[in-house]
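Researcher: I've been going back and forth with a colleague about how Olfactory receptor might be arranged in three dimensions. Neither of us has a model we trust, so I'd like an independent prediction. The organism is Marmota marmota marmota, in case that matters for your notes. Sequence below.
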Amino acid sequence: MASANNVTELIITGLFRDPEVQRVCFVLFLPMYLATVVGNGLIVVTVSVSKSLRSPMYFFLSYLSLVEICYSSTVVPKFITDLLAKVKTISLKGCLVQIFFFHFFGVTETLLLAVMAYDRYVAICKPLYYTAIMSHPVCHRLVVGSWLGGFFHSIIQIFITIPLPFCGPNVIDHYFCDLHPLFKIACADTFVVGIIMFVNSGLFSVFSFLFLVSSYIVILFNLKNHSAEGRRKALSTCASHITVVILFFGPAIFLYLRPASTYTEDKLVALFYTVITPMLNPIIYTLRNAEVKNAIRKLWGKKVNSRIG
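Model: Here is an independent structure prediction for Olfactory receptor. You can compare it with whatever you and your colleague have in mind.
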């Protein structure tokens, strides 16, 4: 940490200040987090053991679900336990660790969504070359590249934050540690680091979103050359992906495109992409995908039969 720091512990204001409302939120958000872990975990297990889900699309889906669990777990468990605490605190080092993993898993998810869009593009627009292009080594390299991209993005965020001096006050007006609220309490000019963050997070989110939207527009345009059944199946898959993309990128773009110096905290928007979206993703993918639903039923049936036997 910089030598000017005399702040070692931060106080988090939380989502609401009324103790009764916080207890209601605890009862509401704990089941949502458990549903996130169970739902995404079920997809990971199902894809891993099911022989019918061996295509690259499901390989990427399993990693997306794994990242969703990690992404949500960087924020939500502490947020939930803080709802029952009178004073919500986190160390400055712990705050930086939370920021690192929050952005690490967030950008990894962004890149995985781009990989999934590319997979659908190859499957629909170049079906004869699909198995050659999306081979197992290529799929593994794309996943590793997504993790590495998230790591390097997050390292940049931490490198621009560590040199900042924090000499008081030590109150973060949020329910978890993120860059905007942390920049607010730095006792130094954060204009330059705000611009770097704007480029690294805000513009990255916009360009990623535009790339994904463009990819799916090209995919939908090419569906006219497919049979009615092929179009129906492809539209169902793409609709799930597009829904997840909108739910993920909408709040992120809304928050990170605004400069830190003029930023007004919107905790409800942050709540949407940290708590609600990770819970909805497995529902979106399974409800619109007959193969995943059938694989889950078979997996569940095997477990029930093994217990009875």
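Researcher: What would you highlight for our discussion?
Model: I'd start with this: The two ends are 59 Å apart (CA to CA). After that, consider the following. The chain has a mean pLDDT of 85.
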